[in-house]
Amino acid sequence: MKTIGSTIVHQGDIFRLRRDEVVLPSGRKATREVVEHADAVAVVAVDGTGSVLLERQYRHAASKELLEIPAGGIEPGETPEAAICREMQEETGFFPRKLKKIGGFYSAPGWATEYLHLFIATDLVPSPLSAEDTDEIKLETVPISRISQLIVEGVIEDGKSIAGLLWYLMIREEH
Amino acid sequence: MKTIGSTIVHQGDIFRLRRDEVVLPSGRKATREVVEHADAVAVVAVDGTGSVLLERQYRHAASKELLEIPAGGIEPGETPEAAICREMQEETGFFPRKLKKIGGFYSAPGWATEYLHLFIATDLVPSPLSAEDTDEIKLETVPISRISQLIVEGVIEDGKSIAGLLWYLMIREEH
User: Fold this and answer.
1) Is A171 helix (H, G, I), strand (E, B) or coil?
2) CB within 8 A of B129, min separation 6: which ones?
3) DSSP for B119-166?
């Protein structure tokens, strides 16, 4: 596929909308609209008691409260590791002394550029940072043994959280 | 959170962009931009030999080829089940005689409305349908025993596919 034209349709606060003209392998012309969103980070954070830190917050786009792993956008000039530490301090009040990247994935590759770097955080120490524009977040600690049940029962309805938590459970059981 | 104003910023082909004015619980006003995307379906399709049907296709938003489970948008008036059957026939050439909904999740609840219904499909029979505007898709069948390896090695880099495949592996092992 070859891009022969590109227009920014809208410059938003957290993403911008691009409209590309492309030539398909068949030779036919088509348009592809893309949401350009900065790369992001998400983290399975496990405390000393073997519980995972989850966040309950109202999500305006979903029009409901969701239970999710900590996550957030990478700011300009920031490494994924620094973004994780900042997000965890702002949203959970903990700093991860051990951080391991386990993988990553696109959130919605059919129409958005966002790529999520996935980490496991352990050895958590209290170290809160205040954030400016965060919606109200309620922290919940859930024993690892209950995570798969919460997913199967539909209590966790966020793609990155399901992917991240099941990934963690899989490699944890391998070690 | 209360919405006090809402404007459609852009009406696109597969999504539209909405800008809402909201009042946060603190009383402060803020704006929230939302990508409105129709709900979608995704399916872990397992053939008679115990292999999973995966699709390799170039994703313009990711600027690369990705390996994904079959998925697609629900068309107006269509049930999720009908959407799965149509997408599978168009993209894989198979019709699923057994279909089971196992759950669902938001793709990117921080900024998009898209909700994905997740299914397991078995008892697959050849029954191709031609689609109009599909990018070139190469079908690959991967033994279930290799799936977790493909995820850990970063070969599968799509959030819905990782969530769906690991979910399938989890409940499969329980039965």
Assistant:
1) helix
2) B86, B89, B90
3) EEEEEEEE-----SSPPPEEEEEEEHHHHHHHHHTTS--BHHHHHHHH
| The two three-digit tokens of residue B46, written as one number | 């397992």
Query: Looking at chain A, which residue has its C-alpha nearest residue B35?
Result: A61
Nearest to A68 by CA among A161, A133, A147, A6: A161
Question: Distance between terminal CA atoms of chain B?
Answer: 42
B 148-167 residues with CB below 8 A of A?
148, 151-152, 154, 156-163, 166-167
Alpha-carbon span B175 to B120, nearest angstrom: 14
Contact B155, B146 (CB under 8 A): no
Q: Where are the beta strands (DSSP E) in B12-81?
A: 15-23, 29-37, 40-45, 51-59, 64-68, 71-73
Q: For the whole model, what pTM was predicted?
A: 0.96
Per-residue pLDDT of chain A (175 residues; tens, 9 = 90+): 899 999 999 998 889 999 999 998 889 999 999 999 999 999 999 999 999 999 999 999 999 999 999 999 999 999 999 999 999 999 999 999 999 999 999 999 999 999 999 999 999 999 998 876 666 899 999 999 999 999 999 999 999 999 999 999 999 965 4
Segments of A46-174 assigned E as strands: 51-59, 64-68, 71-73, 94-106, 115-126, 137-143
- Hey, what are A156's tokens? 């966790």
A112 to B162: CB separation less than 8 angstroms, yes or no: no
Cα distance between residue A111 and residue A105, in whole Å: 14
Q: How far is B118 from chain A (nearest CA, A)?
A: 11
Q: How far apart are the first and last CA of chain A?
A: 42
How many angstroms separate the CA atoms of B165 and B130, rounded?
A: 26
Q: How far is CA B49 from CA A14, A87, B45, B143, B160, in A?
A: 45, 44, 12, 8, 23
Contact between A35 and B35 using a beta-carbon 8 Å cutoff? yes
The pair of three-digit structure tokens given for residue B124, joined into one six-digit string: 């697959």
